[in-house]
Amino acid sequence: MISREIKIGGLAVGGSNPVRVQAMLKSSAGDASALIKEGRNLVKAGAEIIRCAVPEKGQAKKLYSILKELPVPLIADCHFTKTAAVEALDSGFDKIRVNPGNMSAQAIMDSVKKASEKKAALRLGFNTGSCRVSTPQELANIALTWDEKIKKTGFKNFVVSMKSSSVKFTVEANRFFSVYSNTPLHIGVTASGSGIEGIMKSAAGIGCLLLDGVGDTVRVSVTGDSLQEVKAARILRAIASGEPEGLEIISCPTCSRSRIDVEKISVKFRKSLSSEDFKKKLRVAIMGCEVNGPGEAKECDTGICGTRKGALLISRGKITCAVEEKEIIKKLVEEIRKRKT
Ligand code: SF4
Q1: Distance from the CA of 232 to the center of ligand 1, in angstroms?
Q2: Which of 111, 148, 167, 298 is the least crowded, having the fewest Cβ atoms under 10 Å away?
Q3: Distance, CA 305 to ligand 1 centroid (Å)?
Q4: Which of 206, 241, 276 is the last residue of a domain?
């Protein structure tokens, strides 16, 4: 079902809008300079919405005054009582996130009323850690009951999320909900772990849902650097949309046939362009040998394919020239810069 459009601050979410990347700050709520530095870096990396935990009552106003310079909508993450949620909305936050699993029904309804008065947005965040359920359908049914209850008040500017640390559970709950409601969904796999395991779980869960057309905002949540979460979310969104953003590097996994050091070239090539902005979509292929190399490279804006004597540079589908291995990065950088503008 196509979701309805809502507004978070000035940002349209749901409907036919692109999936929005959300990030959550990890710096301590008491460390103003760390919070704003992290927020600026996340926005620079592509975060379109920033969420911030409000752990104690009385903190919302200060947090908002620190973060309000960020050029994106701000969400206050509030739990247990309505106090922080109401304070956050009074302070100027564009949206609150509340959890029916750890707040009384009355506190949720009071938060909804306040969000409506303030013309703000709200997320009902259901989580298997706080909603005692044993099946995805059970979680989705609780969410659907709340969804109906809130819609009946006339307030529509809200989203729902259903998260679990289980990928399968998360995917099934969100799929189920999306069949019965047009409320936009914020998606993600919660507490997915660290390193490659966390990224893989998030990729599997978020990837499945986005490819199904389910999900309007997305957050990758792993134990570790919030910047990596934003980068991973952007990559996932690009993969699922079939339209990669900016510079996409296609490189082969290498095998015993490989004629050039594909890994080293790929890493150095990306690094040499890391400070440059690529608004235009560009694809570069770095392929180890003649087996699949010319074919893949011809599909790209430019590419390199290892040969017995070094490599062939292929641009816009045509072999341009032979290149020595030590000149590959320089040549690729030159070619891609020509196509940037
Ligand atoms: S392109 Fe060549 S080197 Fe790379 S994986 Fe394929 S066969 Fe191996």
Answers
A1: 26
A2: 148
A3: 9
A4: 241
| Beta carbons within 10 angstroms of residue 145's beta carbon | 11
Residue 43 pLDDT level (bands cut at 50, 70, 90)? very high
Amino acid at 145: T
Cβ partners under 8 Å of residue 75, min gap 6: 8, 22, 49, 50, 51, 52, 93, 94, 95, 96, 97, 123
The parent domain of residue 270 ranges over 247-340
Whole-structure pTM value: 0.88
Tell how far the Cα of 318 is from the centroid of ligand 1, in angstroms.
20
* Phi-psi category of residue 213: left, alpha or beta, with phi > 0 → left and psi -120 to 50 → alpha: left
Number of domains in the chain: 2
Q: Is residue 297 part of a domain?
A: yes
Q: Which residue has the CA at smallest separation from atom 5 of ligand 1?
A: 254
The radius of gyration of the chain from alpha carbons, rounded to an integer in Å, stands at 23
Same domain? For 27 and 112 the reply is yes
Residue 278 has pLDDT above 90, yes or no: no
